[in-house]
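Look over what follows to help learners.
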Amino acid sequence: MSSAEAAVVTIEAVQEKHFADLARLQKEFLNSKVMCCCVPLGVFANEAEVRKAFHKCPEMMKVAAVALVDDQVMGFIQVVLHGMPCEIHTVEKDEAYVYMIAVDPDARGMGIGSKLLDWADDIGRQRGCEKISLDVLGGNKAIGLYERRGYVAKPASCLSLPAMFLFVSCFVGLRIRPSGSPPYWNYGKDIFMVKKL
């Protein structure tokens, strides 16, 4: 049995003691995206910003969780419900929206993403939601995980495509294509995925 198979993953609600680790995971996640073609989005991710966001809307802590492996934070998920602040999606009354999910690169393949998504499904059901949704950029390897978990891509309206192209070009930007990564045209394509609960 490999160490990945032997690891015990536990999911627990976010607490203040996790803020430094959340900042680390957010920084790692956001640094894979750039704005204005050169500035990593994670440049502003830090513990003070995490603290400020949760203090601004304390309800957000009730719908956020961490994945622990040997008491180390190795994953994070933030769900947003109707009425909570969300600058990237208008959450409907019957919807739970996965605002962010991040897994430490060293912990990928251990089932952490699946366990975090299960937790989010449970939160959505407990809150009376009929569906759960998320956005993902084309080319992200996690798309396969989302599809296996029951998420279905919804077609983008033809009016949203030019706006998304401009947004992604300016704020996510083109990156030098590492060997084996998807071609550029997959990047910048926002994929909205929905799953019935």
Q: What stands out?
A: Helices lie at 3-6, 19-30, 47-56, 112-126, 142-148, 160-172. The CA atoms of residues 4 and 83 lie 38 Å apart.
